[in-house]
Automatic annotation (TrEMBL):
Descriptive protein name: Imidazole glycerol phosphate synthase subunit HisH
Keyword Transferase: yes
GO biological process, one term: L-histidine biosynthetic process
Protein's organism: Phenylobacterium montanum
PROSITE patterns: GATASE_TYPE_1
Reaction equation(s) it catalyzes: L-glutamine + H2O = L-glutamate + NH4(+); 5-[(5-phospho-1-deoxy-D-ribulos-1-ylimino)methylamino]-1-(5-phospho-beta-D-ribosyl)imidazole-4-carboxamide + L-glutamine = D-erythro-1-(imidazol-4-yl)glycerol 3-phosphate + 5-amino-1-(5-phospho-beta-D-ribosyl)imidazole-4-carboxamide + L-glutamate + H(+)
Subunit structure: Heterodimer of HisH and HisF.
SUPFAM superfamilies registered for this protein in UniProt: Class I glutamine amidotransferase-like
An MF annotation (GO) of this entry: imidazoleglycerol-phosphate synthase activity
Function: IGPS catalyzes the conversion of PRFAR and glutamine to IGP, AICAR and glutamate. The HisH subunit catalyzes the hydrolysis of glutamine to glutamate and ammonia as part of the synthesis of IGP and AICAR. The resulting ammonia molecule is channeled to the active site of HisF.
Length: 214
């Protein structure tokens, strides 16, 4: 049975992410078990890892590091063993080198770059960026299999991840300026939007992640 570790570090939004992962898995062959956990041993042994996130970068980083052994387990599983990883919203942002929300806070530094406040060009584009937007896939990737070239996803955020290497941007979105809607590198991927709130398109992306074999 495939195990999916959904990391609990006090960031909230776990229940909706858990339900969406379970629902996405039901459409696939093979048994899957979603475990909400902060147990380093379970994380290290998981077949898939999902890091959600809601709120401020610094608070989420502090919450993650406060869970004994969790960051070490993530490093061992994701970067050591090559476990497929998906970061959602701030969970994606934590993959960056640093976040600039309120103060400079170090991230996991899995994909070089920084998280900084959105500065849209035009008064019509509000911050927080909240609502439905089409994402534009930059290059073919298994996460986006079966999705249209422009797929609507649900966003709610004020900060975005700007990778150092443009090749890390798997999909982009335009909100008074273009920025990363998704990043990917090797066995690691992250999405700025909330697939668990993005209806059929979001469920398809989660199902693709559960079937992904990087």
């Amino acid at each position: 049975m495939q195990s999916i570790a959904l990391i609990d570090y006090g960031s909230g939004n776990l229940r909706s992410a858990e339900k969406a992962l379970v629902k996405a898995g039901e459409a696939l062959d093979g048994a899957r078990r979603v475990v909400v956990t902060a147990d380093p041993d379970l994380i290290a042994r998981a077949d898939r890892i999902v890091l959600p996130g809601v709120g401020a970068f610094a608070a989420c980083a502090a919450g993650l590091h406060a869970r004994s052994g969790v960051t070490e387990a993530l490093e061992a599983a994701v970067r050591g063993r090559g476990t497929p990883f998906l970061g959602i919203c701030v969970g994606m942002q934590l993959m960056a080198s640093r976040g600039l929300e309120f103060r400079t806070t170090l991230g996991l530094d899995w994909i070089g770059g920084e998280v900084r406040r959105l500065t849209p060009d035009g008064a019509a584009f509000k911050v927080p960026h909240m609502g439905w937007n089409d994402i534009q896939v930059a290059a073919p990737h298994p996460l986006f299999e079966g999705l249209g070239a422009d797929s609507p996803m649900y966003f709610t955020h004020s900060f975005a991840f700007f990778p150092d290497d443009a090749a890390a941007v798997a999909a982009s979105v335009d909100h008074g300026g273009r920025f990363a809607a998704a990043v990917a590198h090797g066995n690691m991927a992250g999405v700025q939007f909330h697939p668990e709130k993005s209806q059929a398109a979001g469920l398809r992306l989660l199902a693709n992640f559960l079937d992904w074999r990087p």
